[in-house]
Amino acid sequence: MNDKEFFDESINKAVKRYSSLFTLPSLKVILGLIMLLCAGCGVFSTFLLNPTMQGLLFGIIIGIILFLITFISDMVVDKIFLRNDLVYEMRRCLGLSIFSLAVWLAFILLSNGLALLFRITTLFRLWLLGFSAAVILRLTVLNATSVASHWRRIISAFFTPSVALMLFFYTWTYMGNTLNLGAWEYLAATIPLSIVAVYAFTYSLNKIGVEKLGFSSFALFKAFLINWIEGTNTPLENIFEKLGTERNVKISILKFETSSEKIMLVIPQVHPGPFKNVGSSLLPSKLQEALEKKFKYVAVPHGLLGHEFDVSSSSHVERIIEKVVDASNFSPTASLATPLTHTTCGPATVFCQIFGDCAVLSLTLAPKTTEDLPQALGSYALKEAKKYGLSHVIVINAHNSLDGTVSIKENMELFRKAITENLKETSSLKRLPFKVGAAKIIPTEFGLEDGMGPGGITAVTVEVGNQKFAYVTIDGNNMVSGLREKILSMFRDLGVDSGEVFTTDTHAVTAVVLTSRGYHALGEVIPHEKLINYVRETVEKALMDMKPAKVGYKVTTVPNVKVIGEKQIIELCSLIDPALKRAKHMAVPLFLATGLLLVFLLVWLL
Known about the structure:
Layout: H1 3-22, H2 27-46, H3 53-81, H4 90-118, H5 124-145, H6 150-174, H7 181-213, H8 217-230, H9 234-243, E1 245-257, E2 262-268, H10 283-291, E3 297-299, H11 314-327, E4 336-337, E5 341-345, E6 348-355, E7 358-364, H12 376-386, E8 392-397, H13 408-427, E9 432-441, E10 457-464, E11 467-474, H14 483-493, E12 498-503, H15 528-544, E13 547-548, E14 550-563, H16 566-573, H17 576-605
Parallel strand pairs: 2-3, 7-8, 11-12
Antiparallel strand pairs: 1-2, 1-14, 4-9, 5-6, 6-7, 9-10, 9-13, 10-11
Helix pairs in contact: 1-16, 2-3, 2-4, 3-4, 3-6, 4-5, 5-6, 5-7, 5-17, 7-8, 7-17, 8-9, 10-11, 12-13, 14-15
């Protein structure tokens, strides 16, 4: 498994694990569940001890009051104690109350059931124990997920259960029982004991993150939640900034200029990740958007790199974009190009076309999986190109087939062989004047959930002599195996002799759907025929737009860009499992010991 698969699988695993906790049903459903739980708490707190019509009616009234005070209490928690929290709003406060009420109801049922069977009333103690369990649950969840201050979390954990407990106290005394001093003494003891138990638990888990990464485990978890739930990327990017290492990153620009328009291919040596709107995930479409204010068409295919070149924050992405926009102000001078050629060695296929003294290569293993490829192939290609008098090479990872797992290391030698043979063949061809056309379509019916990024489909067509070629770039994270071949077949129907299909590897589509991979590759849910028709339309427009052109290239370097780095990626991804293992190992003994101590206090004080 390469670093991309490891990282994407880890992110998807985290999304799946926590989605059930925070992807809540509608407010109406939540209120309905709370109403049922409150009704159960009210009825069972009276009817089992007083199985008469009067006991039933009183229980229903208690249940209604409990529902109202729970709703009002959660509103107070939301509007006052957690008012600036980025995770919790009214619906999630109510969702937390569902779990705590369900736990409490179990204790009430056990208490009253035993009281009914054995005719003893001292089992009111279990009502109090249920209160402690509900509070410990709430404080544990809030400690793990809320970004509010410690005292706000503690008050939020105790507030709603405490108001409900006052109602249960009233119910107890209304039924002819008395509250002795021991109940209040127990409550005075349970508050610090619950806080100590929960904070001991969270401290132990946070220690794993501190030892591995220098910050607490829950800091990362909360930052992830805030991004996943609210789309806010700042907390997570702040963490990545601390982890990041500075690198100088290169961006290659190939610029075509006709009598009426300017067309650009931009290949950043930056990985568009890690996911959603974090770091450089949206870099391809953002670069397009910025450059298209000056130039008519811009395509941003994938370069040679992996997740170790994810940019840590949006501020560095803006620096990259500004640098590329400034660097794009140059005038193309070369007017000759070769036809597009390709060489295949086993599963490795290399396409090459030379513009002026710059070779543009694209690499693919299609129909086998073509994922991130190492930068070493670019260095090798440049060394080989200079043997044939070329000044530069621009290498594109086509990133255009997904069909299981393929070992890149096993195919490195095949790629090297194909690059050598292809450059030798292409450099021997006669260079001729050429024409270029371009077009862009953004299919509005497809979105991130379908695997389509905001950059849409961009086609660049080139005519050399009597041959036509097409380069299509789709803003997506790879495509299903076989789709590329269908598109290339469609090219031939349009009179295009050869071409290639690229994806940008945008990670804007990642961690937005709960699939086995965490995103949909192009063609996985989008009907192939529809996507091919959009590509056909884009290529047809580009062919109609072709005009004589000049070409130029430029390589610009953006210094001191913070990227996450391979070591940090491995440590980030390896944090989840040890934290979960420690949580499982600690939770039972710690909270069991706390429970036994609380039981001892109940027996002693009541």
